[in-house]
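I am hoping you can look over what I have pasted underneath with an eye to the fold:
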Amino acid sequence: MKNNASLLYSCFLVAGDFLALVLAFVGAFILRVTLGFGLGEQAVANPVHARTYLGIFLILTPFWIIIFALLGLYGSSIYEKRFSEAGRLLIGSFAGLLFVLSYAYIINEPIFPAKLVPVYGFILAFLLLLIFRNLARWTRSVLFTYNIGITHLLIVGDTRITAELIETLHNSRLSGYKIVGVVGHNNIPDNTSLAIFNNFAEAIDKIGPEDIHSIVQTELYSNSDKNNEILTFSQEHHIAYRFVPGNTELFVGNLEVELFRQSVPVVAVHQTALIGWGRIVKRVFDMVVGCLLLIVASPLLAIISLLQLLNGGDVFFRQTRLTRFNHKFKVYKFRTVRPAYNGLSPEEAFKKMGKPELIKKYRDSGDQLMNDPRIGKFGRFLRATSLDELPQLFNVLKGDLSLVGPRALVPEELSTYEKRHAILSVKSGLTGLAVVSGRRNISFEERRKLDMYYVQNWSFWLDIVILLKTIRVVLTGSGAK
């Protein structure tokens, strides 16, 4: 008997989401109509009978569930991604509400008895969905504790990936997996109590196909017959089968299975998930939000420019940077260095002030030297508040930068920047994952890894999260030096 725990869990989520949505909008009806909770003592605008209201939502909620499904809220990959799940629930709740409002507009009949009912419903729906999802996750872990719903896994292979899988899945309560055996010897941790087998046939003979729910092959054999034997066995006994590609470093970023020339199945490996419509949506978002931010920030831009003129020296600092596909552009910032060092490179400035030993520190820090002596008092204020970055909004509108992206590289960094080709597969950003994860308080290597993570795991929701976190970072001055 095969393990249907994932399917049952998905069905449980569907039922729970359905109940949460119905309860949310019933609660909204009670709050506004029955209890009269609202703005002032306004009467109900559209008298709608409670039974009619409930009937409409029982009919429309399945379509709402379909929206959730399209957002991937019932796929197994969402189980351990709490933050991503919350974001998709928020988007799905809003999209579902728009669907209901559109339906009311099309039939030209009032669904909601008052304008505040959909507002209350949206808020309650999101909160109840979050509560239910966390309750479902807790219930699942409790069931795992009692060995209910556990997936029995056989690992075939003798590579470092085998050891990593054993380490990752050792806690059944958290992972939902129980390793029933490993085919291989060399990369098994010494302290393991797992059943170890010399070959696949021995493993099947000792374990039995009925006690295996999933097989992961971490090593493809040079003998194709051996690989076919494992795959055929999996298919005959309806066991889930996965394999790890030989060179895992090739398989980063976004993967897409497609038919090459409509006949040969191939796996397309993209350096980034930011492809196709994602790029278009991101550019439109940059233009709209960039324009709004520029309008809001225009008084600050004018005041800072005037103060810069009164302080002497240039208003703006311009530097050649690299963005997508090695494209060179001039980045704009408010000048923060003292007028005496205006127009000089950092190396030239350090030599001029008699501190050439700072050149190496500056390079090693990745252009993030703490307590940089070139910076004046007003410049320190601009950097601490991130106001020196405001002119980069013009770069965003020009298309040189995106609002969110990896740090824009200086051309001289190319020779020392590992995996620069991946970083330069997307536009550099005004803010980024490194900015909201510690900024100058983290090492250059950590910032590089965060940039790589962003490139390989881009999503529109990730951009939204980074922008929201950027507001907190700017207001608190976190990591600014």
Observations:
- The longest strand covers residues 177-183.
- Residues 5-145 form one domain.
